[in-house]
Amino acid sequence: MPIAQAALDWYADHARDLPWRDPSAGAWPVLVSEVMLQQTPVVRVLPVWREWVARWPEPARLADDTPADAIRAWGRLGYPRRAMRLHACAEALVERHGGRVPDQVEQLLALPGIGDYTARAVAAFAYGQRHPVVDVNVRRLVARAVLGDAEPGPATTAADLDRVAELLPADAPTAARASAAFMELGALVCTARNQDCTVCPLQAECKWIAAGRPESAGPRRKPQGYAGTDRQVRGLIMAELRHSPEPVAADRIAAVWHLPEQRQRALESLLADGLVHRAGTRYALPGRVEASSILDA
Fold first, then answer.
1. CATH code at 2-127
2. Residue 120 Cα distances to 104, 131, 176, 180, 287, angstroms
3. 3-class DSSP state for residue 293?
4. How far apart are CA 88 and CA 116, in angstroms?
5. Where are any strands of DSSP class E within the chain?
6. Any idea which residues carry the catalytic annotation?
7. Burial tier of 79 (Cβ tally within 10 Å: 0-12, 13-18, 19+)
8. Does residue 263 contact residue 233 with C-beta atoms inside 8 Å?
9. What tens digit of pLDDT does each residue of 3-31 get?
10. Which 3 state secondary structure label does DSSP give 163?
11. Is 207 exposed, middle or buried (0-12, 13-18, 19+ CB in 10 A)?
C-alpha cells in the first residue's frame, strides 16, 4: 500500500510530539483530547488538556465535580457545550463501565457527546484498532491523492470511510498509526491553503499533482468571522459567569455587550443550550441537576 507506507515513513520523522500520542497516555486522556480538538487548533488545546488530565486523570474524578467546574476549566476553548458533554460522558463511564473507557465503537457511540468520528478515533488511537478515522484533513488528503480533487465534499460520507479503510494496512496497530499519519499530513502539509507539495511524501502517488493541481470546481467557503457575532457575545457572557463563584446579576450581564437585542438573543441561546441557568433575576453556570435535565432532553 504505497500511500499508507509513504505516510507512515514520513510520520516516523515528522509527527508532532503530542502528549496524548504517548503510548502510556491512556484512553480517557485520548478521549478528552479528541473532544477538545474538534474545531480547535492543537496550540490552544495543549495547555487546557494538560490542566484537565492533571485535575481529572480518570472519569470518576470529573464525575465527582459539577458541570460548572468543567465549564470553568474549559476556559476559552470555544463551544463550551463540549465541556458539559464531557462531564456527562464521565458520569456515564462511571455508571455503565466502572469508570473505564470501553474499547468497542458501539459502546463508545452510546456515550453522551461521542459521535462517529470520536468513537473511531478513541478505538484506533487508544486501543490500536483498525478503523477509518476521517476528519476534514484526512478527507482533503484523500480527495487530492486518490481522486485528484482539490477539495473534499462538505461532510464525511460512507464513501469517504470506505476509501480510507481501503488505504489502511491489514495489521490493526499499523492501521491505527496510518490513520494518525494521514491526519498529520493533512494538518501540516496537505493543508487547505498554502500546501507544500514539494515536501509531501505522497507526491509520486498523488492524482491531484499529476493533474496539475486544478482549482476546486465548487465555491470557496469564506472563513467564518467572530468579531461582532452572537458567538462572541455568548463568549463574553460565559466569561463573566466563569469568573464569578456566585450567581451574576442581570446588570452585570447587560454590561458585557452594548446591543441589548443581540445580548438577549445570545443569553437566551445559552439558556436553551443548558450552559447558563437562571436563578430568579441572576444567572449562573449549570449545576448537576440543571445540566442533566438539558442533556437528557
1. 1.10.340.30
2. 9, 6, 10, 12, 31
3. helix
4. 17
5. 248-249, 277-279, 282-284
6. 34
7. middle
8. yes
9. 999 999 999 999 999 999 999 999 999 99
10. helix
11. middle
Residue boundaries of the structural domains of the chain: 2-127, 136-210, 230-295
Q: How far apart are CA 122 and CA 131, in angstroms?
A: 10
The sign of the CA dihedral 283, 268, 92, 157 is: negative
The fold of the 136-210 domain, in CATH, is Endonuclease Iii, domain 2 (1.10.1670)
CA-nearest of 87, 85, 183, 73 to 132 is 183
Q: Which residue has the cell 463551544?
A: 79
Cβ atoms of 108 and 118 closer than 8 Å = yes
Quote the DSSP letter at residue 145: I
Cα angle value 80/85/86 (rounded, 5°): 95
Is 133:121 a contact under the CB 8 Å cutoff? yes
**Over the stretch 169-222, which tens digit does the pLDDT of each residue have?**
999 999 999 999 999 999 999 999 889 999 999 999 999 999 999 987 766 666
pTM of the model: 0.87
* Contacts of residue 245, Cβ cutoff 8 Å, sequence gap at least 6: none
Q: Does domain 230-295 have CATH number 1.10.3470?
A: no
What are the backbone angles phi and psi of residue 48, rounded to the nearest 5°?
-70, -40
Closest by alpha carbon to 117, among 96, 137, 97, 90? 137
